Amino acid sequence: WRVTFANAEAERILGSGGSTLWERCPELEASTFANAFRYAMADRAELISETVLPATGWVQARARPLDDGLL
Fold first, then answer.
1. Counting Cβ atoms within 10 Å, is residue 18 exposed (0-12), middle (13-18) or buried (19+)?
2. Which of 13, 31, 41, 49 could form a disulfide with 36 if both were Cys (CB 3.0 to 4.6 A apart)?
3. pTM (2 decimals)?
4. For the residues of 2-71, what is the DSSP string, one character each?
């Protein structure tokens, strides 16, 4: 997953290093977000997902499938 836009809070959490979501925040790859994002793309479903990350605490993400990725 390539990060093409992140709001200010997401930039604070993810940092600016790396171009993929997993490079920016490796712990997300093993979180409920990874499965939720894959589900959103596979089933073309909009979703809201929540998880707790050790470094940041509770995080919520919204995903809306587009033809070439997630918004």
1. middle
2. 49
3. 0.66
4. B-----HHHHHHH-S--SBHHHH-GGGGGSHHHHHHHHHHHHT--EEEEEEETTTEEEEEEE-EETTEE-
8 Å CB contact between 47 and 39: yes
**Phi/psi of residue 25, each to 5°?**
-145, 80
| Spatial CB neighbours of 62, under 8 Å, sequence gap ≥ 6 | 46, 47, 48, 49
Instruction: Name the amino acid, one letter, at 60.
Output: Q
CA–CA distance, 43 with 11 (Å, rounded to integer):
27
Q: Which residues lie below 8 Å from residue 41, measured CB to CB, with a gap of 6+?
A: 65, 69, 70
The pair phi, psi for residue 66, each rounded to 5°, is: -120, 175
Q: How far is CA 32 from the centre of its chain?
A: 10
